[in-house]
Every structure is written in structure tokens, then in C-alpha cells.
């Protein structure tokens, strides 16, 4: 007898039982179709269906790296740098130590070096590079512009820096990731070490609009963060906004790799601060304690009186 035969026999018997009041009697064992089994990826070599060990609910599964995390964005990094002392120390300490004593540049007048504030600018650029994963320092120079660029001098800034045409160095200006971005990448393997590196930078800051914001990489100092793998920094599936040279992934922020540890440490300190504020001396109230103390005091006085009378 097939499943459908059994099912119709059971349904017919139930219908009769409802109409004549007789007890329901099944014709035989009812066959239940196989339920759909849910396949769960195993996290261990052993799977225990009763305890769940080795399955997706096993706490031991957290021991594997999480590939579905979200990186901290620029706004979150800024808030972390502004409001968390641990994070700020991680970002600032190494650049501060590296530039604390400064340095001497051969052939550069000491007064010019102080006016440039080179050490402070390098420190700031390194801090922003560590914080956001990238920053840029533009070398501002006064050049002897060739006749072919006199009508459009901004195009001269898109050419490699020619030291023979540099009249004087005006200074070094630092831009973070909100104001400086690579515009075009070097795609020729003949470029050697500059292959897949920024070729042109775009600067979105006040005073650079008249320069059309494009500056050659030889005029820019790039401050990096935690480096990514080459395949992460270069992808042929995306293009920059102007479609010229590929999509550039900045380095990771220095805070990204230690974010989980910083978060857990901060939560632990916050929990300790809350507990410290709630600490208080406990007061116990026992029913009848006042009467017991009065009784003990009366017995003590009676004992003193009896002892005195006995000694007389």
C-alpha cells in the first residue's frame, strides 16, 4: 500500500469518527515524507548533533579569521583619533619620536629650514598617512616656466619636476585623504619602481582651483599607511572617476589592524570605571538587633552589680 492510499484511508476514518462519534482508529502506521535537511557548514572535524559542537553555533568557530568584516571608514577613523587616547597615541607616537630632534639639510640655510618647518610638516604627513592610510605633501616651488607653458602654467605642474628650472623652494604643504587623491596611475612596466604608482595627483583645496588641481607625482611626497597586497591596491574591474589608469586602493589605516584589541581594551576600562563608581560600603540590617543589644547591656550591668555585692 502506497503513501497516498494510507493517507486517504486515515482521512476517511477521521471523517467517520467525526460524524458518528466513534474513536478514531488509524488503519496502520502513517508514513511521513522525509523532511528537507538543512546543510550547515562544519567548523570542526567532529559534529555532535545533540550538543551542537562542531556546527555553526559552536563558540570555537570564532577561532577562524572573519572574512566578512567592514573596514573603518574615514569618519570613524577621525572620531576614533579625536576621542580615544589609545588610538591617538598609536598614530602620533612614532612620527613624534622620529621628528623630535629634527635634521640638518646640507646646503640649506638654517633660517630657510625653520621657515619651511620641514620636521613638523613631515610629522603631520606621517600622522595623516598612518591614520587614513594615505596622505600627500606637495612641494611648492618657484620655477622658470618654459615659453610653451606660459599661457597655461598649470600644465607645467603636470610635468616631472625639473630641478634645473627650480628657482627656489617655497615650502611643503600637507593634505590628508579628503583633499588629495591619485588621479592617474603609471601603467607602463617600463616605469620600473613607479609601476602602478600614482602618476598624477588631484588636490581639492582652496587656492588650487586655478591650477586645475593636477600635479605630477614627482612634486608630491606620498605618506603611506599599512600596505595592502599588490592585487588589492590594483584592480582592473574598476576605474577612477576620470577613467584614466585604474582604481587606486589606499593603504589600510594603522588603527584597522588593532581596532578589535583597542575596542576590547576600551570596553574593559569603561566597565571598570562603572564598577568603581558603584562601589559602596554594605550595611546589614538584622531584625531584633536593638533588643538583643539592650538585653546584653542589661545582663552586663546585672553581672557588675552582683560582682560588686559579692566582694563587699
Write the layout of secondary structure elements.
Layout (H helix, E strand, L loop, with lengths): L2 H18 L53 H10 L1 H15 L10 H7 L1 H15 L1 E10 L22 E10 L4 E6 L12 E6 L10 E3 L3 E5 L5 H4 E2 L11 E2 L5 H25 L10 H23 L1
Antiparallel strand pairs: 1-2, 1-6, 3-4, 4-5, 7-8
Q: Average the pLDDT over all residues and give the rounded result.
A: 75
How many distinct domains? 2
SS elements, strand count: 8
Q: What is the CA-atom radius of gyration, in angstroms?
A: 39 Å
Which sequence of SSEs, written as H and E, runs from N to C? HHHHHEEEEEEHEEHH
Portion of residues in beta strands equals: 5-15%
Instruction: State the share of residues found in helices, binned by percent.
Output: 25-40%
Using the alpha-carbon principal axes, give the shape. Answer: elongated
Strand order of the largest sheet: 2-1-6
Per DSSP, the total helix count is 8
Structural class by sheet pairing and helices? alpha+beta
Distance between the termini: 113 Å
**Residue windows where pLDDT falls under 50 for at least 5 positions:** 236-247
Q: Sheet bearing the most strands, described?
A: 3 strands, antiparallel
